[in-house]
């Protein structure tokens, strides 16, 4: 039995449906992420789990017990917000100890557990500081320590790293992974940052318009998106609209306007004549001045339209026949080489047919 179950939860605000018949099971000890754009319903769903809001329909169960109407203070669930919500007049130690004091835990036990919690988040020796004396990352650690001090069954995290700069955010991601493994508590994490979701999660639930549109391990969601929305939202994906002309098993031939017939693969039933998109990730696309394609490879030609140097890789935007743009990546791994191509250079592109997916419109 799953630790946390959401059964056909729906939440409306007037005529707007923020969460629409969401059903979901989250296992004990799992790092689960709700990923989606602003307004997709992920924070509303988190609030339903926390008890800050109540579904209009559906139920929420924890350890098999219905907690749909249980007030938040009586749920073994804690929430960490982007704002940290620390008490400015209290020391770090007092902030962390607050839940235990509310539970009337003995003073000696509080002292021991606070010291342990501060060690877990790498803040040992900083218990007497005030929040305003801390950096953003340190405040985040205090908020985490306070949330974990009484070992809740579930920890909810609502975009907790959004206010941090890139380098600190990446450091905190690694610390969150380590901490979650250490304490073994179920984390339910909300973010709109695709890279963050892919780095942190055991599983990801991609949300759009109040629904979970795809659920799976990070690599499965990235490599095998089930819809055009998921392919376009997570990472970068080339999308070429076309019509199915032939099918042989999982192998399809698509007619793409201006480019002719291109091969792709299908993971769901497809009908000849159906319209959709060929989706291929830029890192799957080979780019060179000249390519002799391997058997079964898609082979196209184009002209460098633009380029974006990102340090470790360069993104090349290639203009194909009919003005279509296709992105390809090249790692900047050769010593002293910054650019392989310039705008206006003629190039060849190729990718394996199985690297391209057909997605329904």
Protein model, in words:
The chain has 361 residues and is α+β, with helices and mostly antiparallel strands. It folds into 2 domains: 225 residues, Rossmann fold (3-Layer(aba) Sandwich); 125 residues, OB fold (Dihydrolipoamide Acetyltransferase, E2P), CATH 2.40.50.100. It is built from 8 helices and 20 strands. The strands form 4 sheets. It has a 6-stranded mixed sheet, with helices on both faces. Strands 13-12-11-14-20 form a 5-stranded antiparallel sheet. It has a 5-stranded antiparallel sheet with strand order 15-19-16-17-18, with no helix packed on it. The chain starts with a strand and ends with a strand.
What structural keywords apply?
alpha+beta, Rossmann fold, 8 helices, 6-stranded mixed sheet, single chain, OB fold (Dihydrolipoamide Acetyltransferase, E2P), 5-stranded antiparallel sheet, 2 domains, about 350 residues, about 35% strand
- Do you know the CATH architecture of the largest domain? 3-Layer(aba) Sandwich
SSE string, helices as H and strands as E: EEEHEEEHHHEHEHEEHHEEEEEEEEEE
Low-confidence stretches: none
Quote the distance from N terminus to C terminus. Answer: 36 Å
CATH class of the largest domain: Alpha Beta
Major sheet description: 6 strands, mixed
Quickly count the helices: 8
Strand content: 35-45%
């Amino acid at each position: 039995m799953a630790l946390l179950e959401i059964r056909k939860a729906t939440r409306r605000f007037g005529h707007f449906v923020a969460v629409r018949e969401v059903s979901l099971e989250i296992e004990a000890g799992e790092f689960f992420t709700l990923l989606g754009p602003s307004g997709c319903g992920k924070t509303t769903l988190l609030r339903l789990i926390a008890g800050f809001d109540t579904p209009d329909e559906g139920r929420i169960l924890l350890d098999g017990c219905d907690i749909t109407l249980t007030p938040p203070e009586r749920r073994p669930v804690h929430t960490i917000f982007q704002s940290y919500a620390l008490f400015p007049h209290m020391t770090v130690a007092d902030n962390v100890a607050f839940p235990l004091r509310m539970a009337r835990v003995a003073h000696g036990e509080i002292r021991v557990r606070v010291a342990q919690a501060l060690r877990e988040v790498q803040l040992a020796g900083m218990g007497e500081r005030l929040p305003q004396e801390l950096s953003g990352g340190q405040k985040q650690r205090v908020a985490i320590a306070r949330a974990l001090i009484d070992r809740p069954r579930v920890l909810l995290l609502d975009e907790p790293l959004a206010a941090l700069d890139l380098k600190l955010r990446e450091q905190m991601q690694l610390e969150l992974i380590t901490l979650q493994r250490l304490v073994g508590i179920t984390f339910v994490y909300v973010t709109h940052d695709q890279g963050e979701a892919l780095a942190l999660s055991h599983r990801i639930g991609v949300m759009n318009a109040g629904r979970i549109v795809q659920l799976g391990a990070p690599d499965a969601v990235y490599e095998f998106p089930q819809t055009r929305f998921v392919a376009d939202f997570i990472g970068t994906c080339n999308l070429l609209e076309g019509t199915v002309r032939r099918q042989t098993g999982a192998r399809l031939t698509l007619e793409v306007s201006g480019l002719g017939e291109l091969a792709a693969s299908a993971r769901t039933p497809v009908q000849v004549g159906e319209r959709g998109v060929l989706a291929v990730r830029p890192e799957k696309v080979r780019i060179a001045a000249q390519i002799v394609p391997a058997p079964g490879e898609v082979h196209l030609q184009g002209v460098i339209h633009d380029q974006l140097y990102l340090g470790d890789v360069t993104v090349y935007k290639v203009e194909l026949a009919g003005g279509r743009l296709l992105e390809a990546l090249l790692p900047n791994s050769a010593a002293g080489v910054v650019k392989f191509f310039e705008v206006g250079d003629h190039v060849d592109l190729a990718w394996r047919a199985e690297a391209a997916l057909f997605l329904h419109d």
